[in-house]
């Protein structure tokens, strides 16, 4: 997978027995249907001490798959329970999780929060964020970099710089922003509004050697906007998403080698309350799930219980820069890179020390 010729010396031992199969870029785009505590700081490679801590707390993975279920609320997970969401509850039992993670503070909408997931940055460009404040297919700003007013790296560009392969599978056309922003770093982009067909495309791609895949599912958000969060159609959409996650996990586990080398991360961009999710001060909007499973992850553990440097925020919205921050969806990027034994995203802020445990001490 990761190519030796494009990585720095500390990675050579990890990559000695791996190879890269780069797939050609594929486009399958469907037609469109507050108070910030401190600015973000640029990330540097972890110190020797940090590296030692990482070695003791997290094993490496050969591949990471990040799944975001758009608009899935914690209230719906609790309401439906393990009988109606068997795959999500099995996912939690098999790994590390919390149902009290946080979105970006500034906004609880789709594109800004997803861009935070892959850049590891807050939203507000004036304080070091990625600058994506819109949530549609507008042509300008045409890239994340244009929105921020400066270069913005991502998990895609970090993996690509190390010689790895990445892919994006999204159920909304607005995600074409990422392909425009990191065109050379995303080796395959598939955008399909049909979630079932999208998952079929991802499963068909699993035999291809890739270091990172991002899967976006849209069903709960679609139903929430049309019928309201916690309505019967919305809860049905959450159950359908659970079934799709089950298909993905089953496909990963079908091959013993792939199962052993793959870590799956799962979160959401926001929840929802009533007819919308726009108000960033509403608990149902900013409280989300964050889960991980795989051979590099402990079984049936609560993320806050095994991470003394992170604090369960209760019902608080929280600010950036806390001494003991909450788990955030924006940590997806650097958790991924840590699992792949790569440095954090340049300029990122969330989990930049790569100290989030996925296994108990």
From TrEMBL:
- Keyword Signal listed? The answer is yes
Annotated coiled-coil segments of the chain: none
GO molecular function of the protein, one example? Answer: hydrolase activity
Against Pfam families, the record matches this protein to: Phosphodiest
State the signal peptide span: 1-29
Q: Which UniProt keywords apply?
A: Signal
Q: Under what name is this protein listed?
A: Uncharacterized protein
């Amino acid at each position: 997978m990761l190519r030796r010729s494009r990585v720095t010396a500390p990675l050579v031992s990890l990559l000695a027995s791996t190879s890269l199969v780069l797939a050609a870029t594929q486009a399958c785009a469907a037609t469109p249907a507050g108070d910030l505590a401190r600015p973000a700081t640029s990330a540097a490679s972890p110190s020797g001490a940090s590296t030692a801590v990482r070695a003791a707390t997290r094993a490496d993975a050969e591949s990471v798959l990040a799944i975001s279920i758009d608009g899935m609320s914690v209230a719906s997970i609790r309401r439906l329970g393990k009988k109606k969401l068997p795959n999500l509850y099995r996912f939690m039992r098999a790994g590390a999780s919390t149902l009290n993670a946080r979105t970006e503070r500034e906004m609880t909408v789709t594109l800004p929060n997803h861009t935070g997931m892959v850049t590891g940055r807050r939203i507000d460009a004036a304080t070091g964020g990625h600058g994506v404040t819109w949530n549609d297919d507008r042509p300008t700003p045409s890239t994340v970099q244009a929105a921020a007013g400066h270069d913005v790296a991502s998990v895609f560009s970090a993996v690509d710089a190390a010689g790895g392969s990445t892919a994006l599978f999204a159920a909304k056309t607005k995600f074409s922003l990422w392909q425009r922003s990191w065109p050379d770093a995303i080796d395959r982009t598939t955008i399909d509004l049909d979630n079932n067909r999208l998952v079929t495309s991802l499963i068909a791609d699993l035999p291809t050697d890739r270091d990172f895949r991002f899967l976006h599912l849209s069903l709960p958000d679609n139903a929430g906007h049309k019928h309201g969060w916690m309505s019967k159609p919305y809860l049905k959409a959450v159950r359908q998403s659970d079934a799709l996650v089950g298909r993905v996990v089953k496909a990963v586990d079908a091959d013993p080698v792939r199962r052993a080398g793959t870590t799956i991360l799962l979160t959401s961009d926001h929840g929802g309350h009533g007819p919308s999710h726009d108000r960033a001060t509403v608990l149902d909007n900013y409280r989300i799930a964050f889960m991980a499973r795989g051979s590099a992850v402990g079984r049936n553990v609560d993320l806050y219980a095994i991470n003394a440097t992170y604090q369960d925020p209760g019902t608080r919205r929280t600010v950036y820069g806390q001494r003991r921050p909450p788990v955030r969806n924006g940590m997806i990027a650097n958790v991924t890179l840590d699992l792949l034994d790569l440095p954090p995203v340049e300029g990122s802020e969330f989990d930049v020390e790569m100290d989030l445990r996925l296994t108990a001490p």
